[in-house]
Automatic annotation (TrEMBL):
GO terms for biological process: L-proline biosynthetic process. It comes from Oscillibacter hominis. It is found in: Cytoplasm. Keywords: Amino-acid biosynthesis, ATP-binding, Cytoplasm, Kinase, Nucleotide-binding, Proline biosynthesis, Transferase. The gene is proB. Belongs to the glutamate 5-kinase family. It is an enzyme of class 2 (transferase). GO terms for cellular component: cytosol. Catalyzes the transfer of a phosphate group to glutamate to form L-glutamate 5-phosphate. This is Glutamate 5-kinase. InterPro entries: AceGlu_kinase-like_sf (IPR036393), Asp/Glu/Uridylate_kinase (IPR001048), G5K_ProB (IPR041739), Glu/AcGlu_kinase (IPR001057), Glu_5kinase (IPR011529), Glu_5kinase/COase_Synthase (IPR005715), Glutamate_5-kinase_CS (IPR019797). Pathway: Amino-acid biosynthesis; L-proline biosynthesis; L-glutamate 5-semialdehyde from L-glutamate: step 1/2. ATP binds at K13, S172, D173, T214, G215, G216, M217, S218, T219, K220. The keyword Transferase applies. Residues 8-238 form the Aspartate/glutamate/uridylate kinase domain.
Amino acid sequence: MSQISEAKRIVIKIGTSTLAYATGRINIRRFELLCKVLSDLKNSGREIVLVSSGAVGVGVAKLGLPERPKDIPGKQATAAVGQCELMYLYDKLFLEKNHKVAQILLTRDGFEQPQRRQNMKNTFDRLLSLGAIPIVNENDTVATEELEFGDNDTLSSMVAALTEADALIILSDIDGLYDSDPHKNPDAKLIPVVDQIDSHIEEIAGGSVSGLGTGGMSTKIQAAKIAGKAGVTMAIINGSDPNLLYDLLDGKTVGTVFTAGK
């Protein structure tokens, strides 16, 4: 737990199902509380990078569509609409707490080309040194299947590795990793710490339970593997109460922590 509590540079990922209601509309109370907590953590001297999903889901609701588009152009169009509203809200709420934000939209090829990867790292480093909060999302408006991360769990772990973060915290719609599916087994037990991701851990990881998001527990396990390989400790906690971030960073047992050694 000390790897989390002592972390100075933290990447925090929040999913669509945590940010928005099932209607796709923003959960304003939770959104405001998240920005308040992150602002307070920033005030304490920590560096915060926020990886935020939600653009497509919010765009779907704003355009009055009955469901999330399945085709690439539809996804790109709804993302373009939704990303505007997301960044407007982040800018407004963080500015109220005297913090500046920056939008960074990424595609996978940026990580794969050495010069672009270095340019990305330089940008993150400079923004953090200037005291800004980078807010990251996949660039859905230009991404094709070849350029997609597939989900923001993967993106957040790649950003954590790129920025040499001390910790990655994924805010999910579930408390953490259970020894069996808690939606099917009421006796399922939360696993507080995972020191090694083996075949058993991968087997018990289930799929997405949200109709708005693209990730599930299996993608979070893959994210933990990417983060761990880069020496970044990762935690999964329930994002329904952003105040749990305080408990986690105070060293209390919250969610599931995937340990990693620098």
